From TrEMBL:
Binding residues for substrate: 166
SMART domains per UniProt: CBM_2
Reaction it catalyzes: Hydrolysis of terminal (1->4)-linked alpha-D-glucose residues successively from non-reducing ends of the chains with release of beta-D-glucose
Record Pfam families: CBM_20, Glyco_hydro_15
Enzyme class: hydrolase
Keyword Amino-acid biosynthesis attributed: no
Signal peptide: 1-27
Annotated active site: 223, 226
Similarity-based family: Belongs to the glycosyl hydrolase 15 family.
Protein name: Glucoamylase
UniProt domain CBM20: residue ranges: 544-652
EC number(s) per entry: 3.2.1.3
Amino acid sequence: MHHHLLYRSLCACIFLFSRAILGAAAAAQIPLSLAAATGSLDAWLAIETPFALNGIFENTGDGSRQDGVDEGIVIASPSKEDPDYFYTWTRDSALVFKCLVDTFIAASDDDSGDGDESVLQTRIHQYISSQAYLQTVWNPSGGWWNGAGLGEPKFQVNSTPFVGSWGRPQADGPGLRAVTMMAYARWLIANGYESTAERIVWPVIQNDLSFVAAHWNSSGFADLWEEVQGLSFFTTLVQHRALVEGRDLAVELGLECAYCESQAPQVRCLLQTYWTGSYMDSHPGSGRAGKDASTILASIYGFDPDGGCDDITFQPCSARALANHKAVTDSFRLIYPINAGLQAGKSVAIGRYAEDVYHGGHPWYLTTFAAAEQLYDAIYQWHNRGSIDISDVSLGFFKDIYSRAAVGTYAASGETFWAIVAAVREYADGYLSVAQKYTPDSGELAEQFSRQNGIPLSANNLTWSYAALLTAAARRRSIVPPSWSEWCSTDVPETCLPTFAIGSYKAASITSWPPALTSKGGSEILPPACIPTTPEPSPTTPCTTPPTSVTVTFNEIATTEWGEVIFIVGSIPQLGSWKPTDAITLSAYRYTGSNHLWYQTINLPSGASFEYKYLRKKRDGAIVWEGGPNRAYTVPKQCGLSRVMRNDDHWR
Ligand SMILES: *[C@@H]1O[C@H](CO)[C@@H](O)[C@H](O)[C@H]1NC(C)=O
Ligand SMILES: *[C@@H]1O[C@H](CO)[C@@H](O)[C@H](O)[C@H]1NC(C)=O
């Protein structure tokens, strides 16, 4: 124990000492301030987050820029040489705007009316319109009429093609962009602007989804770092989410996306093949170890706040994603001098991958933020589920930060749950503190910081760095994006097939936005119902007033013939007071050959106890009651619990 303490303070001394020398030698170029380096994380975030949002605005065309950047176009960085990032990448722009759309949705929900929302919303409209146009720009990857041009990774800031040589086409951009625009489309629908979502946004989304359905299994550049050809875990995960959400959004709009529906399970199948047994191989066949921060970025990109800790979709709290977090973060401990002495379980600076040599292969801000964000996401999910599972796969991760960790399930009613949550939160905060320590006083976030001494390096004011800070800081405050019904997509086909589907491509030409698309307030963006794989969440947030009503989804497995309908009826007025004529119809929308699911979501008073049964109405109108005794249920009346899934009913 003493030995360790001594060792650590010795390291700190050497570290401060070398910084002092360096500072004297290069004071002019190291604007690191002691205030920034030693202030509390909360104090730093309070200053840095508005700065970051402004940094994104500065790097996005809004019609006022004098340097040729079109409205809605995001520049990767203002840096014009070494490196020249004065271009717009489809990938970076989509990731940055996903952050802005989620920020907008959270702000419009809280209804403070401070006007920030309309500024954000204007930017979002400009972004979507700019992408509708960019999709149609003929470029070295091809044209838009058959979708080939959608794979072009970057354009000039004035929306003309970049014709220099480059790794192209690249496969992650369209999926990322579709998910960003779908988030906004779902907000429009939830607030009563369905026709705007359908007329203006859906056509742009549809082109990108068509590209994903056609190209998810193509060889070529799929790598978000633009370096290697072939498979990329990040890209496969992004494509999967895009197709699942595309199918659901199409249904919400009364349309269909048959190619989303047919391809999503196959992409999900491929997604499973990246697991090595202890981490996700980010780029199978690339010749690298495959421990890569892009897998952490993938996990936070697929985060569903209401999701289970599912390995299938690599949720942040899943055993595989946590084991992977350890494998990836450990791979940076020994290679960076600034991480010296920080053994497993201590927060460190994170780069892209250990073999990286690009611009010196230093740590990156955005990957260091991502290491924190995955852990905040996991904490949110554990609270939501009311328990933490530790398995053989995740034990190593937990042991590093909580030495007494053992395989088991820890409910929120016990002390262990809270001890683990506190340890994980401290660990997550530690990653943000590392980035804080190496952020200059000005607040500017570059792409990288030196592995030797933490000086900012490579492109300055990297837009993606700012977005990565904002999303990590939001998750730290439990501000999360809407659910994408992750738990509906956890069945995996037995055999993975190399397939594709042909969608359709049309120039999305309607880009004039109606005025006053204001929030209706309190209109929650609900995911479509489906059979859940998660147990009912048990609430843990302390509060004094539990909700007065709870949205309960009843899922009933009942094999029916064509023309038959299943109803639910029960002893309370909301369920028809046992009168078959007032029974509630269940939906067969998700009924398939292998899953005979009928479901309905009903708003019920908290705490209500009742009995109920299912009814079958035959094609000729005859009513058949299910057998057995009445079923009984008590709606939970608990703080923080507003939605419940019941998934254990079978027709009898
Ligand atoms: C295509 O899909 C098959 C089946 O999942 C898989 O084995 C193969 O690696 C995939 N190739 C690419 C380039 O996605
Ligand atoms: C970075 O952004 C800040 C704030 O907008 C600005 O003052 C600074 O000049 C920018 N740096 C570069 C290299 O563009």
